[in-house]
Amino acid sequence: MTTPTVTERDAAGAMELLAAASADPELLIVLTDEEIVALAGRDALSFAGSPYLDQEGVDETAHASAALRSLIARGLVVTTDEAREEEGEVLIGAAPEGGMQIDRPIAGLLMLRTTASAVVHVTRQVAEQATRLVLHVEADGGVLEEFVSADGFHRFSVPTPAAAVERLARYIDPSGVAGEEGGAAVTAPIAELDAGEGELAETLADTRTLSVLTAVSAAEASQATIFATTGSVHAMDTPPEGATEGTVRELSATDLRALLSDLLERSTRRAEA
């Protein structure tokens, strides 16, 4: 993976975005898979995914080229010296070689995606459709939210940390079925769960929304699967390799939000360590 270039202008754009964080954030911008590739390269989609470009028969190079032309036409990318702003000092990577300059808010957004100290992402499966919600967590607790639709549209917002937790909880439990009280942890053989056998497997077979929650930082990575059934929400940490049993516990609405809040707080603490 190549080291991205970050300038003072990029950092200013990022700080302006984070300063506008809101409990009810507005949509900043929508970018497509191919627009992100055109602006930041293929590596920029490693966490968020690229559902449109991953389709069979899609010519990624041609689509990215067309996307860049569209960005230039809309004034979101400039290619002439007269229209360029001063980049300032290079903070990360090598000095840019002229060429195109990205609209400052988008440049700041791309910087936040690149320099996040931790990434929390949830892949949600509802029926046959998969979407993803990604939180790019900054060392100071700032959050850039990226929702990726099944057809490859990336919608960006900047919620406050508390709002990010609430929005993530609603994404995982869209019908609000988590109750006021959780339940005791239940352990069952993994082979039994995989085969759909036993009382616990029967409960999980009623899953309407399946979410795989992953948190990644420089220090560690963790993963859990959350099952939202017609009447309850259950969580199972990914068992270590070679484990023969899995443990599932029912989460109350408060439990779910506490789990997500702790995950974001731990991500920030790891960055400060």
Number of domains: 2
Helix content: 25-40%
Radius of gyration: 21 Å
Oligomeric state, counting identical vs distinct chains: single chain
Strand order of the largest sheet: 2-9-8-7-6-11-12-13-14-10
- Order of helices and strands, N to C? EHEHHEEEHEEEEHEHHEEEEH
Percentage of residues in strands: 25-35%
- Describe the biggest sheet? 10 strands, antiparallel
Low-confidence stretches: none
Instruction: Tell me, rounded to a whole number, the average pLDDT.
Output: 91
Query: What is the number of helical segments per DSSP (H or I, 4+ residues)?
Result: 8
Question: How far do the termini sit from each other?
Answer: 25 Å
Globular, elongated, flat, extended or rod-shaped: what is the shape? Answer: elongated
How many runs of DSSP E, i.e. beta strands? 14
- Helix/strand-derived class? alpha+beta
Please supply descriptive tags for the structure shown above.
single chain, 273 residues, alpha+beta, 2 domains, 10-stranded antiparallel beta sheet, two-stranded antiparallel sheet, 8 helices, 14 strands, 33% helix, elongated
Description of the structure:
With 273 residues, this protein is of the alpha+beta class. It folds into two domains: 1-115, no CATH class; 116-273, no CATH class. It is built from eight helices and 14 strands. The chain has a ten-stranded antiparallel sheet with strand order 2-9-8-7-6-11-12-13-14-10, sandwiched between helices. A two-stranded antiparallel sheet has the order 1-4. It has a two-stranded antiparallel sheet with strand order 3-5. Strand 7 and strand 8 (143-148) form a beta hairpin. Helix 1 (8-19) packs across helix 4 and helix 5 (161-172) crosses helix 8. The protein is elongated and about 70 Å long. The chain starts with 5 loop residues before the first strand and ends with a helix. The relative contact order is 0.15. The model has no long low-confidence stretch (mean pLDDT 91).
